[in-house]
Amino acid sequence: MKLTVIGFWGGYPKKNGASSGYLLEHNDFNLLLDCGSGILAKLQNVLQPEELDAVILSHYHPDHIADIGVLQHARLIQGLLGKKMDTLPIYGHHYDQSEFTKLTYKEITKGVPFDPAASLAVGPFKITFLKTDHPVPCYAMRIEADGKVLIYTGDGSYKNELIAFCKNADLLLCECNFYGNQNGKQAGHMTSLETGELAQKAVVKQLCLTHLPHYGNTQELVNEASGKYTGIIKLAEEFLAISL
After folding, report:
1. Mean pLDDT of 206-220
2. Nearest-CA neighbor of 141 among 57, 221, 234?
3. CA 232, CA 241: separation in Å to the nearest integer?
């Protein structure tokens, strides 16, 4: 598996940046995890929209889905220009029907509901889910392929159930929207100290901090997390690629 960070800001994209979006590649299958604001412009540096095989969404906050509409139009226009493409499946939960219905557009994209209580096969990936503590329904994902495991937390505050869910993962792609001296519980986000604690207790091989705050020195998030976790810690940045 190869993960490429396309966007990593929480809430909204910082100047010239993008909010949440990550490209996961394995066996020539291209899966986009979330599709936030600015993702389509950034994605085209790595992969063209018509080359995506599937999209999966953790939840329906704008910083995770804002570019779904422009992805649909990009594939529509490329089709009109002669590119041959299958209908793109966009996987999402069905607990917000008004947002879920927007995932289907003409014959361009098709919204596909996932069952959080079951595993989901998407191309070469097996995906299982854990509901996170967030103001709207949101799901962390455990993504497995050829013996490698990636955890994408989506958005959510720390809870003990995450430890077993993340156990022994090769990579924990973990939201980190708050610094160590803050409290993210009410907002439904994790602090740097909590990400480090989760990574240490789950015995993951490496930790990548994402969904970053727009203020302060974000490198300090790594310093704070390293006080709890003794493994490899990376700070998400544009086009950071991690191979598992």
Report:
1. 98
2. 57
3. 15
Cα–Cα distance for residue pair 129/94, rounded to 1 Å = 14
Q: How confident is the model at residue 78 (pLDDT cuts 50, 70, 90)?
A: very high
* Token pair recorded at residue 75: 């594939």
Question: For residue 53, what pLDDT is reported?
Answer: 98
Angle formed at CA 214 by CA 172 and CA 9, multiple of 5 degrees? 45
pLDDT for position 175: 98
What are the structure tokens assigned to 140, written together? 């962390």
Single pTM value for the model? 0.97
* Interatomic CA distance for residues 107 and 112, integer angstroms: 13
User: How far, in Å, CA of 129 to CA of 222, rounded?
Assistant: 26
> What CATH topology corresponds to 2-243?
Metallo-beta-lactamase; Chain A (3.60.15)
Q: What is the residue type of 144?
A: E
What are the strands of the beta sheet with 241-243, ordered from one edge?
Answer: 109-113, 88-92, 54-56, 29-33, 21-26, 2-7, 241-243
pLDDT for 220: 98
Query: Cα separation of 208 and 34, whole Å?
Result: 16
